[in-house]
Amino acid sequence: MTMYVITHKAFDYPLPTGYTPILVGADKNANPNHYQPDNEGENISDKNPSYCELTGLYWLWKNANDEYIGLSHYRRYFSKYPTRGRMYLATIIKGKVAPVSLKKLDEIMQTTEWILSEPEQGGEGNVKQQFENFHNANDLAITRQVISEFSPKVLSAFDQVMQQSQISFYNMFYTSKSEMDAYCEWLFKILFEVEKRTDIANYDQYQQRLYGFLSERLLNVWIKYRQVSVTYLAEYQTDELDRSYAIDRFKQKLKS
């Protein structure tokens, strides 16, 4: 059982037992701390600028052998709390929140099939409108078309997720390796075809991360299609969550 921590650089943050950094874009990024690189074995490390953490996910799919497996980020982790409200309150009281332990994750897995980040709204409108507000709307239309051709049974789930107001972001999860493998087999088949039909050559560096952005939505589509059991945990960003930030956010939640 391992929680893999995606990073593109060396970082200094105390990780619980069972958390292992994986360096993405290892073809180009320095690795002074000898993290597990994503360019060993079968890999797509060279796609990192446009696939983001997915080059790490692909490496896990093709090379890892854990019974249970997860993905978080060097500055973004699951807490042990089911909601952000409870996490903010705990931070106000304790002053900090730590990544959830692997022991706790494995306990949760006895009664669920996936652990995802607590759903949130990524802007105004529904998920489709949110994506179109920040990215190229045609890229999402192409993705829908690819799903309709390559995976038509999933199309209804795609349309339902696009009409939601909230989803789980960040491509963070914890699940069994078999569940992850089934998801990856579907995801990369879709994304590799979308990549063939999209042109990101003139996108700026941020927008070139297209396939990472799409996958954040597609994880929710897969979960909707599979109708698996899900437990949500509040995630936090290490450079934001301190007592003063938690107080502000907790006040906002009380108002809403």
Element-by-element helix/strand order: EEEHHEEHHEHHHEHHEEH
For the secondary structure, the number of strands is 9
Number of domains: 1
* Strand-pairing-aware structural class: alpha/beta
Instruction: Going across the biggest sheet, name each strand in turn.
Output: 3-2-1-4-7-6-8
Q: Quote the beta fraction.
A: 5-15%
Radius of gyration: 18 Å
What portion of residues is helical?
40-55%
Name the overall outline: globular
Mean pLDDT, all residues = 96
Per DSSP, the total helix count is 10
What does this structure look like?
The chain is α/β, with parallel strands linked by helices and 256 residues long. It has one domain. It contains ten helices and nine strands. The longest helix is centred in the C-terminal third of the chain and has 21 residues. The relative contact order is 0.18. InterPro entries: DUF4422.
Protein traits:
alpha/beta, 10 helices, two-stranded antiparallel ribbon, globular
How are the secondary structure elements laid out?
Blueprint: E1 2-7, E2 19-23, E3 36-37, H1 48-51, H2 54-63, E4 68-73, E5 76-78, H3 84-94, H4 102-108, E6 114-117, H5 127-134, H6 137-150, H7 155-163, E7 173-176, H8 177-197, H9 210-226, E8 230-233, E9 235-237, H10 243-255
Parallel strand pairs: 1-2, 1-4, 2-3, 6-8
Antiparallel strand pairs: 4-7, 5-9, 6-7
Helix pairs in contact: 3-10, 6-8, 7-9, 8-9
